Structure formats: C-alpha cells, structure tokens
Amino acid sequence: MPTIVFGGAFDPPHKEHVRALKCAVGTLGAGRVVVLPTYLPPHKSAGYLPFATRAELARLAFEGEVGAEVVVDCEEERRGKDNYAYVLLGEMKKRYGDIVYLIGGDSLRDIGTWRHPEKIFRECPVAVAPRKGAGDAAKLRRKALETYGGEVIMLDFEGDDVSSGRVKAELLMGLGCDAVPQKVMRYIESHGLFGEYREWMEKLRGMESEELLDHSASAVMRAVDLNSRHNLKQDFCKVFEAALLHDNAKERPSLDGLDVPEDSVGTPVLHQFLGAEKAKRDFGVTETDILDAIRYHTTAKPDMTVLEKLIYTADSTSYDREYDPIPQLRAATDADFERGFEEVLAYTYAKLKKKGGRVYPLTEEAVRYYLPQLAAE
Ligand SMILES: [Fe+2]
Ligand SMILES: [Fe+2]
Fold first, then answer.
1. Engineering a disulfide at 228: which of 14, 79, 130, 163 sits with its beta carbon 3.0 to 4.6 angstroms away?
2. Which of 272, 271, 332 is CA-nearest to residue 296?
3. Distance 177 CA to ligand 1 centre (A)
4. Calpha distance 54→49 (Å, rounded)
5. CATH number of 159's domain
6. What is the 177 CA–ligand 2 centroid distance (Å)?
7. Residue 295 and residue 308: Cα distance in Å, rounded?
8. 216: CA distance to ligand 2 center in Å?
9. 255 and 117: one domain?
10. pTM of the prediction?
11. Residue range 200-243, pLDDT digits in tens
C-alpha cells in the first residue's frame, strides 16, 4: 500500500484539502498519509501562522478524516532551507518507502517554475486533484507526461474554488467561514488566531455603511482570489490591507488639511487620494505600495505595479457587483489578468466618455499608456 505525501502551507487547512486527500487515499488504496507543512522563512512569515501551529492544524484537519493513518512530518522545519520538492521526496522515499506525491491542479499547471521538476517525476508517481475551472485536466496531464515523463494520476475529483488565502481573508475579517473543518475552527477560536485585524474591522464598522463594508469585503475576496488564481505572488497582507481600506474615505470626504490634488476635490476620484492619506493617518499604514494601490484604485495611471492593477481590477469586478457587464469583465479577468485589467480600463473609460464631462487626467494618461489605440479614436 503506498504512502501519500501531501505538502502545503495549511495556513489554515480547509475542507477541500481534506476532500482531495480522502479521494487520493480511496483511489490509490493508500495506507498512510504523510502531511508536510511548508516551512516559510522568517522574512516571509508576515501574515502566516507559525510552523508549529500550522502543523497542529493540519493534524486536526486530517487525523481520523481521510481513511488512512496520518503522519505530520516536520522535515521542512528541520531543514529550514532548500526545501525543494524533489529533495524532500527523495527523503520521504527513504523514510516511508513506496510513495505517491499528491498535488493540486494549479501546482501541476505551475510545476515548470519549480526547481528541477523533472526530478520530481523521476522520484515517484504524481497524483493530481484538479480544481474546478482550472483548465483541462487531461491536457495538463498530457503536457506533464510529454515534458517530464513518469507517472501522472489524475484523480476523479473536482475541487471547489476554495483557497487558503480566501479562507484566511474571511477569518481575518471576522466573517463566518464554513470551509474550515470544525476541529480546526475550534482551535482557531480557542487560541484567538486570525485576530490581527479586529481593531481595523471595528473602526471600519464605525465609519462605513453596511453596503460599503460589504463592498470592501467583496473586493478583498476578489483581490485574494485573483492573486492566487494568477499566481501573482503579491504579499497576502498587502493585498488584504489595500483592498480592505481602498474605500475607507468614500463616505468620509472631509479634507482635514490632508494633502490631495486640488483638481480632485469635489470629484468622485477624491476618495482614492483621501483614502490613501486616511489609511496612513487612521490605520497606521506606512508601506507606500499599499498606499499607492489605494491612491490609484479609481483612476488607474500609467505604468502601474501588479498590486495597483490587482486592487483596481478587484474593485471593479468585486463580487458584490452583479450588473452588466461586470460578470463578463470578471470572466475576462479570471481568464487573463493583464488583458482583463485592460478590458476593465477600456470599459470604465468608455463609460466615463459616454457620461460626458471631464475624464480625470490620470485616467486619460492610463488609457494612452495601456490602450493607445483606444486613446487615438
Ligand atoms: Fe473606490
Ligand atoms: Fe470600491
């Protein structure tokens, strides 16, 4: 009976992890599961639970739930660095014998960016749990086999669109989260985990209408989803903070002597400039990349950073917007981040033009920069 090796940050583990593992155990007739929590080096640790906590949460999530013995192996923490999958799998093989490596469909899609992917496929069979809407599973398998050889087992599984980032965002905002197994949730509650933004949430509840707060939360979920879907590698906390605070000044238009462009005063774009200043003053945000993502979320601008584009796009396609053509724009940004961003910009520009009146200069510049053809029309 093979042993399944399953790695992940488990920050926190969620029900889709449990489902995938259970499916793999059943399909492969595995007698044992080795769970390998990812070691995250200290500089990456902002916003992550400590290793020991994630290991404990993984144990709580999987033990007694997947139909096989569960071992949580802390090899990555012991090694501390150079935790490449191919090296770890060699070690696991020595330790546990006949192994199968279980990964998600997204990982198979991105495996070309891992260190020595060919060595992974040489080490052991790879089982894949595809995620819903993550592309054609059979095509991904064929491509992997052509490129690396070895054995690739596609599980008869369709993972729901749940990511740890999404779960984490819900927990941090104090929203109910039914994607977390009960035992994990009890541990989270009794240890007061994910309480870092409680004060911010209280403040926001005091300053934003229910509708605006709902929109801000939807923008957070959208931003976190896009970040993980397109593997944009943006720091979780930055994405979370920028999206959560992007409209903090929307219902607080008082200038309070803060430094905002004069030509924005009295216009709908004022709240982006004021929002950046008030995020600094009222929430203590100091990172300029977060502040800039807030500062340009309405107008856009030329030469935007990934974080700026992410917040701009997440705001325009947030889950609380259901009117035409947002669902189509959402689908476009789901399919391709850069093109989706440009489509959102084109749509917004067309809408402003149709309305008549002055388009804010930064938006004109953004259109000239990203959509020169459109600007020439
Ligand atoms: Fe806004
Ligand atoms: Fe917004």
1. 163
2. 272
3. 26
4. 6
5. 3.40.50.620
6. 23
7. 9
8. 6
9. no
10. 0.87
11. 999 999 999 999 999 999 999 999 999 988 989 999 999 999 99
